[in-house]
Amino acid sequence: EVEKRGDTDFTIKRSDLNKYTANLSEILNQARMVPNIVSGSGGRVEGFRFVSINPGSIFEKLGFKNMDVIKSVNGEDVNSPTRAMEFYNALKTSSNIQLGVVRNGKEETFNYSVTP
């Protein structure tokens, strides 16, 4: 379903992506995320942090680990639940997706290629 080509480089077929994005409530039950509030910022949100990922879930297959923070999608900041939903909907038609992720204090770019 998801082919790992490197530590942060993945390929997924469009049909599989469609299958996973078809049922939002099922996806939301596979992992728990919370807003990543920047310390000392007065509540400013910089992305969303995984606090629990179910083993075998799509999130695990996509390379995520507990405590990872998704900060951006295709260079655009994810700083509210509304923005997160906009990006979720955009995934359905994108052929290349880049996620800015912070893991263990280090910023990384996760690349996903969606193939026919």
Q: Could you characterize what this model shows?
A:
With 116 residues, the chain is α+β, with helices and mostly antiparallel strands. It is built from four helices and eight strands, in the order E-E-H-H-E-E-H-E-E-H-E-E. Strands 1, 2, 3, 4, 5, 6, 7 and 8 form an eight-stranded mixed β-sheet that branches. The two termini are 13 Å apart. The mean pLDDT is 92.
Biggest pleated-sheet summary:
8 strands, mixed
Strand content: 35-45%
Q: Using the CA coordinates, give the radius of gyration.
A: 14 Å
User: What sequence of helices (H) and strands (E) makes up the elements?
Assistant: EEHHEEHEEHEE
Poorly predicted residue ranges: none
Mean of all residue-level pLDDT scores:
92
Structural class category: alpha+beta
Helix coverage percent of residues?
Answer: 10-25%
Tally of DSSP β-strands? 8
End-to-end gap: 13 Å
The number of helical segments is 4
- Shape from CA axes? globular
